[in-house]
Design brief:
The complex is a heterodimer of chains A (208) and B (427). Chain A is mainly α and 208 residues long. Chain A has 9 helices and no strands. Chain A has one domain: Transmembrane di-heme cytochromes, Chain C (Fumarate Reductase Cytochrome B subunit, Up-down Bundle), CATH 1.20.950.20. In chain B, 52% of the residues lie in helices and 6% in strands. With 427 residues, chain B is an alpha/beta fold. The chains are: A mainly alpha (208), B alpha/beta (427).
């Protein structure tokens, strides 16, 4: 372990604890008790909320905006892959060269996707109206993270830069727009609870 | 610091700030894709009508007073002070440009409950007396007179008595009546005050169904209003007063079941929100008349002849009863038994578009022009079905559909589920 490892480790712990606190607060039912007699149950609806309800077959924001939806899915896969790579690099595991090239290829698709979304946010009037500085910065932060992660596969000497960059990103996650990393899961769970309790989700076509 | 006059809005916000509200305030990624799910944005194509933009007003206030970056570098995260400008924007968009239909919530790419945030924003505005006057006067009427139209008790009894006389003549049976305040009756039925005022046939239809089913039922002239406009205004305290009236009446008469008349928000307000307004579960059963009719059909207590309704029928799904209330297939089950030609709108069910009359819009004459404009989406949906009759289990929706019928020259009849069932009933 060198100084960069310690910096990354500290940032990871801070990010984890702050995010955990946010998640616990978000899912705490205290104050949100429902006294109405339930018509359905939450758990199947929560499962539905994370699966079919997210699919382009069901979700209008997906099927009406398929290119954006697809780019969004791809760059999120890329981001999670980068986090995995970060962990791999942290423990000092050497990625075999051939696998490295496959990862770089996947990352290239992801980076193109996120840059496309970034450009859309800048160019598209509707997206611009919705955005604040935090939105652009967060987007840019993830582009940088993916690009450096990708380059670090090819160039070992970039690892210190990756660790420092990732540390900054991890520290920013609980503060700005990137906290949706946590709140996305909380929102889907809350939505599943709501619609499940009321018997709306999962759909029961022709069954009453 | 917030101006003193706006402090009550922050105080109530602070009280509401539990897990669910925190979640939805922090989740939006500002993608703006929800615009295409909102009838206001689809109609006007103005960015301010994007649902995510509307509720960002509330999230921006949250960020300003509750987050580190919002407190220190507000512009960076788009945090906003609660001041005259933001309050004016909130009134215009949170009251005047949202029917709280929840369509954008269901389709949100993240899962932000936008309608829930709008309701939270309205609760803030209640505390600083910024409810739109038209809506507040409806709430006041309900709180002060016992029903949202201020119908005097004697007038209601007169209306009920002549409806009962007509029913007795139609069915040629003196047992076909409308019992008032009958102690120990199994069912206490409710009304939307628009029924005695403008739509007595709806009451007559319900009475006919109860008669045919051999139901032991009653109405109370002192507590019958199924509506609760406090749900729309954002006033939980007022909501509790209105809820408690029906709860007390059920207890006083010793009824087993409270049956909710055909009213979308009335169903939601009583079935789902009411227990939370009074912070306890109801000690009785509660069911909508739509669900009860399904029971009657299944138990063989009423028989329907679809040949009695031969015109092409479509259904409009009230958002508060369907997407937000879980009564989705029941009305379809009934219509398949009661009419011979049933056609669905596209989209329908949980994906249905609001008629434009929800969220208290019908009470807010201030925004009437917007309401009629956004209703064109519903009018187009209806026209595309080719239906001659539009059925909906909601008097609020009926009012809006009647206006749309006139404005967009749809040339359709508009009926409740009860009315179409009463037409098909075999006695």
């Amino acid at each position: 372990m060198n100084i960069y490892h310690y910096i990354l480790l500290t940032a990871s712990i801070i990010c984890f604890l702050a995010s955990l606190r946010q998640l616990i607060q978000a899912l705490n039912k205290k104050g949100d008790l429902d006294y109405a007699e339930p018509k359905g149950t939450a758990n199947p609806a929560i499962s539905y909320s994370f699966t079919n309800a997210m699919s382009p077959k069901k979700k209008e924001t997906a099927f009406l905006h398929l290119p954006t939806y697809t780019a969004g899915i791809l760059f999120h896969i890329g981001t999670f892959l980068c986090i995995f790579l970060l962990a791999v690099n942290f423990i000092g595991f050497n990625i075999p060269e051939k696998i490295g090239y496959v990862i770089v290829a996947i990352m290239a698709v992801s980076i193109i996707s996120i840059i496309a979304i970034f450009i859309k946010r800048i160019v598209n009037a509707k997206s611009r109206v919705m955005s604040n500085a935090d939105d652009y910065f967060s987007n840019f932060l993830i582009i940088g993270f993916q690009v450096i992660s990708c380059l670090a596969i090819l160039m070992d000497n970039l690892l210190p830069l990756l660790f420092i960059y990732a540390s900054v990103m991890l520290l920013y996650i609980p503060l700005g727009k990137l906290k949706h990393t946590v709140y996305f899961f909380a929102a889907r769970i809350q939505m599943g609870r709501f619609y499940g309790y009321r018997g709306v989700w999962p759909p029961k076509r022709n069954k009453i | 610091m917030v101006e003193k006059k706006y402090q009550p809005a922050l105080d109530i916000f602070d009280k509401m700030l539990h897990g669910k509200l925190k979640t939805h305030l922090n989740s939006c990624v500002h993608c703006g894709l929800c615009g295409e799910s909102c009838l206001y944005y689809l109609t006007h194509k103005e960015d301010k009508y994007i649902p995510g933009k509307k509720v960002d007003l509330i999230s921006a206030i949250y960020r300003r007073y509750y987050t580190l970056l919002g407190k220190t570098v507000p512009k960076w995260v788009g945090a906003k002070d609660l001041n005259d400008e933001t309050v004016a924007e909130m009134v215009d968009l949170i009251y005047g440009a949202c029917t709280m239909c929840g369509r954008c919530s269901m389709h949100c790419s993240i899962g932000v409950d936008i309608a829930f945030l709008v309701r939270a924003g309205r609760s803030m505005l209640v505390e600083i007396n910024k409810v739109v006057p038209g809506l507040q006067s409806t709430v006041d009427a309900a709180l002060n007179t016992g029903n949202n139209m201020g119908i005097p008790r004697d007038e209601l009894i007169d209306t009920i008595e002549w409806i009962a006389e007509d029913l007795e003549m139609e069915l040629d049976d003196e047992k076909a009546t409308i019992p008032l305040d009958k102690k120990g009756a199994k069912v206490l039925y409710t009304l939307n005050p628009r029924e005695p005022k403008f739509f007595p046939l709806s009451i007559s239809a319900a009475a006919k169904i109860f008669y045919a089913a051999g139901e032991d039922w009653t109405l109370s002239p002192d507590a019958y209003d199924v509506t609760n406009y406090c749900y729309f205004s954002g006033d939980d305290k007022g909501g509790a007063v209105i809820t408690q009236r029906l709860v007390d009446k059920v207890a006083e008469l010793g009824c087993e079941t409270l049956v909710l008349a055909e009213c979308g928000h009335g169903f939601r307000g009583n079935r789902w929100e009411g227990p939370n307004y009074i912070n306890k579960s109801y000690p009785f059963n509660e069911i909508s008349i739509v669900e009860l009719i399904v029971e009657y059909i299944r138990e063989g207590r009423i028989k329907l002849d679809p040949a009695k309704n031969t015109k092409k029928v479509t259904i409009h799904d009230p958002c508060n009863m369907v997407r937000e209330g879980g009564v989705i297939e029941e009305q379809r089950f009934i219509l398949k038994q009661a009419v011979s030609d049933f056609v669905e709108m596209t989209p329908h069910g949980v994906n249905n578009f609001c008629c434009g009359g929800g969220g208290g819009q019908l009470a807010m004459s201030e925004y009437a022009e917007r309401r009629i404009k956004v209703g064109k989406i519903k009018a187009d949906q209806i026209r595309a079905t080719g239906a001659e009759i539009v059925v909906t289990p909601c008097h609020n929706c009926i009012d809006q559909l009647m206006e749309l019928n006139k404005e967009y020259k749809l040339n359709v009849e508009i009926k409740t589920i009860g009315e179409i069932v009463a037409d098909a009933i075999v006695i």
